[in-house]
Amino acid sequence: MPRGGTDTGGATDPPTLTASGLTSAEAADLLARHGPNEQPRPRRRTLVSRVWTQVRDPMILVLLAAGTFTALVGDVSDSVIIAVVVLVNSATGVLQELRAERAIDALSDLVAPTARVHRDGVVARVPAREIVPGDLMLLAAGDRVAADARVVATHDLQVDESAMTGESLPVALADGDEVAAGTSVTAGRADVVVTRTGAESGLGRLAALIAATPLRATPLQRRLAQLSRVVVVGVLSLTVVVMVEGLLLGRSVVQMALVGVSLAVAAVPESLPAVVVVSLALGAHRMARRQAVVRRLPAVETLGAVTVIATDKTGTLTEGRMVAERLWTPAPGAEAEQHLLRDAVLCNDARVLGDGVTEGEPLERAVLDLARERGLDIEAERGAWRRFGEEPFDNRSRRMRTWHRGPDGAELVVEKGAPEVVLDGLAGSTDALAAVDLLAADGYRVLAVAERLQRDDGAGGRRIVGLVGIVDPPRAAAADVVADCRRAGIRVVLVTGDHPGTARAIADRVGIEDTPEAVGIHARVRPEDKATIVNDLQRDGEVVAMLGDGVNDAPALRRADIGVAAGRGGTEVARQAADLVLLDDDFRTVVAAVEEGRRIYANIRTFLVYGLSGGVAEVGVMLCGPIIGTALPLLPAQILWINLLTHGPTGVALAVDPADPSQMAEPPRPPDEPVLHRPLVVRLALAATLLVATSVTAALLVGTDGRRTATFLALGLGQLGVALAVRASGRAGRRNYGLFVAIAGSAALLLLGAYLGPFQALLHTQALGAPDLGIVLALAAVPGLVVGTVVRRARRRRLRLANVER
Q1: How many CA atoms, within 13 angstroms, populate the side-chain half-sphere of residue 479?
Q2: Residue 798, Cβ neighbours under 10 Å: how many?
Q3: What is the DSSP string of 184-238?
Q4: Residue-wise pLDDT tens digits, 13-60
Q5: Which of these ranges, 173-177, 512-516, 629-633, 700-704, has the smallest mean pLDDT?
Q6: Which of 105, 350, 512, 580 has the most other CB atoms within 10 Å of its CB?
Q7: Is 312 considered catalytic here?
Q8: What single-letter DSSP state applies at residue 520?
Q9: Which of 135, 143, 160, 312 is catalytic?
Q10: CA–CA distance, 525 with 573 (Å, rounded to integer)
């Protein structure tokens, strides 16, 4: 018998379905035993403890040592720069640690502040923290679930679990089903018995999982820490050799100690952290303009090293909304499809608002949207076929029925719901069920529609009207983005809590490959499974970026080398756990971030080749003192002046070099590749050797009185030429006007050091005649010309190899 009328009632607190509960005394005893219903929070560390952890980092220790050196020799500008970099790095590390705590704090926002429970035989509203296992809790539409519970009595309960599972549709729950803390009731009502609270609940376990997942050092941080140790040991060893050589040639201990400190400062690229910070900060600024907020600076560079992108499905690859796309009818044709849409609109509680927006349950809204697109006049059809009775959708029956009276007095019964229920026993159901299987294989949720004219007698009057295929469609650019990732050598892996068939259908539509050798689809995964998948990929040597938007993604976002969260449709928990937040929820922004990360890493490598080659050359020139005929080819002040001009503005200008257009056509760098791999070491050695050779040659070709000045100018100007050569990366690289200005300014100051009176007094230099200056300038150009030729040839060879592999 259908339920008549359309009154929905007006009570804000619907009547309960059962009438038992705990007493206040029982609740107090359970609260003392289990503790409050709150998420566990890690012990807060003091600010001093946090800062000390950052200062102990090897890179910071290197900086402090360099800062001490520069302070000892009176190099105020370098000392200030190093102090600022130490402060920025330490502050960034402290903020990074605080982010994990904020991610856990954000979990508490998912729990309602109060809940309705039975206490002492009456319904009471109590603070959520006082909920205890055994409480009988009342749920109704609009409520946020305060604790894990088991349904004991329900009336059409539907729960939005998207924040916890990623499932885009509300889930219908029946008696005996579990409901999780942090989920929201979208329809119906229920009485539930609380089973787990606080740390034992699903949210509590997530909080523990986030807290137990340490932040990984980025590939760049690990590589620079290794390089710093090698550079420091090498430079100090060579400095000791120079000092001993000077002492053996009769120089004083004090003078050689000053030379040693000056060389150590010059050879150790203390500007490297400044270059890194500037590169990352400018990269973060560029990403912000492209709708991506960087929450942790090293994350920008990490994207450039990514080899695998593990992504959630709902809201990331897909639009996060339901769309009716496919229709099937027993007799093909537009008339049959219009008939199907008419019945699906009649047996439907969604409605069209005044502004044309649909309101209601997602599946029913999707049907209305398709009917409108196909030209069906919804209000006219509903007016012609007035509803006079209904059987609402029920979790047990898994169908909805409505009774309608037509303009000629005919009565129509429309049935909509699960295909296996609606199609059962109907003629033609074999063909319809086969169509259901095909639609399901393509990732569609299927609604079956049947009808019966009331004047027909018996079940034989029921007939199949058709099927509606509904899907959460992929984003328009998803397939292109996956293809771009493949061209860049990055594998995309789908990690979702959805059904395997749905996951595979979406993967096929966007081009995600799934093979036994390289698994591309992980379906029906739990939150802890996602973190495990990320960990397994990392154990295999992959650098993993994880994309997600739900609470269930937070542990994996934190575990990944870089976590990327959706900012518009995602949860606050996911945003707090992530390193990068996409304001537009657009997968394409990730590819832009990868390009930015590769640009930054390439620029840092360029600076290393440039900076280290200059430092090694300075040590090499000092070792060649006997060849030149003096124990001190360069004085400490001259060494520091060269270092200031070459590593300062020029080094920072290299940090903002534009991207090489070809870099996204190359595979990611191997995860175990050192920051200076063999080709770069060869390039560095070549540059350093040429700088030493040309500086010594300049000293030998110039008169005895001007040898030190010739060495000073040839070495300084030669390094500036190398700065232009090492970044010869195609047409885009020639637009770095800031670098040209920095090099021109540094070259002018070097020449002023030899020709302007006050500088001559400070640096102990003298003016060279035109012939001698011409010799110096010609020789200073040689290292840059040779290195530039090598770099351009290497780039052309690299591009040819990349094209062959593609």
Answers
A1: 9
A2: 16
A3: EEEEEEEEEEEEE-GGGSHHHHHHHHHHHSPPPPPHHHHHHHHHHHHHHHHHHHH
A4: 333 344 568 888 899 999 999 888 876 555 566 666 666 666 665 546
A5: 629-633
A6: 580
A7: yes
A8: -
A9: 312
A10: 19
